[in-house]
Structures are given as structure tokens and as C-alpha cells.
Design brief:
This protein has 142 residues and is mainly alpha-helical. Helix content is 37%, strand content 4%.
């Protein structure tokens, strides 16, 4: 994945897709995605597939809150203004994951990520973490 200052790193996750399945999808949050295994559906529903990213946080490659790390093949086509999302460490959760615009385009997601970068603060991160825990406990992830 692409991290802080466009540095590449390996993002840890539990496998939730069938082997030899492309990891990229235009609709990654779809509940009827045939690429996802039955155990993978449960891991995603409970958000446990993201838990190994705590290793990335401990290694300093990621933060708890920030724009989600992008796949290199998508980030290579970013315009200079879009690359500003890489001025901060990517996060396990972020403003885009909690946004009503989540079902929008990649460009919508980048816009939300840039809102986060422009308003970076401990207080905003704290509010995003609280909202993330609320979504997790309400089980409205997928």
C-alpha cells in the first residue's frame, strides 16, 4: 500500500477473499461479493480483518486514524492535489469510512481524505475514533 510521503509498505490483514481472486473491486463494501469467503464475510462484518493492521501502527507505517492506505496502482495516477492525502500516515479508520459519501467515487473519497488532512487535530482524531467504535458496536459495518 501507499503510505506517508508515498512510501510503499505491506499492510497486514486477515485473508477474506478466495485465493487467486483480485483484491480490488469497484464496490468493496458489497454484501453479495462472490470474491469473499464465508469466514471472510464474518471477519469483515466484525471488522476483525483489520486487526492485523495494529502491527502496521506499532511499526509506525500507519496511524489509528487517517486516510485509508491506497493501492499503488490507483495512487500512481493521482493528480498532485490528490497526493496531498499522503502527507499524513494512513489510518485503520478515517473520515471517509464514516462519511455518508462513502458509496461515492474514488474522487469523493479523496476529497473527504483531504478534508481530514486540512483539519488534522488530536480532537478530530478522537471524534473519529469515537464514531468508529459506535459503528462497530452498532454492527452496521456491512
Amino acid at each position: 500500500r501507499v503510505g506517508l510521503n508515498n512510501e510503499l509498505f505491506i499492510m497486514h490483514k486477515f485473508r477474506s477473499l478466495h485465493i487467486d481472486t483480485p483484491s480490488y473491486s469497484e464496490k468493496p463494501d458489497s454484501t453479495d461479493d462472490e470474491r469473499i469467503t464465508p469466514v471472510g464475510k464474518w471477519l469483515r462484518k466484525t471488522s476483525l480483518d483489520e486487526l492485523p493492521q495494529l502491527f502496521n501502527v506499532l511499526k509506525g507505517e500507519m496511524s489509528l486514524v487517517g486516510p485509508r492506505p491506497e493501492m499503488p496502482f490507483l495512487a500512481k495516477d493521482y493528480e498532485p492535489w490528490e497526493n496531498q492525502r499522503h502527507l499524513v500516515r494512513p489510518g485503520m479508520t478515517g473520515l471517509w469510512q464514516l462519511s455518508p459519501r462513502r458509496q461515492g467515487t474514488i474522487r469523493d473519497g479523496i476529497s473527504v481524505d483531504l478534508e481530514y488532512v486540512e483539519n488534522l487535530s488530536f480532537w478530530n482524531d478522537f471524534k473519529i475514533l469515537l464514531r468508529t467504535f459506535k459503528v462497530f458496536w452498532d454492527s452496521n459495518t456491512y
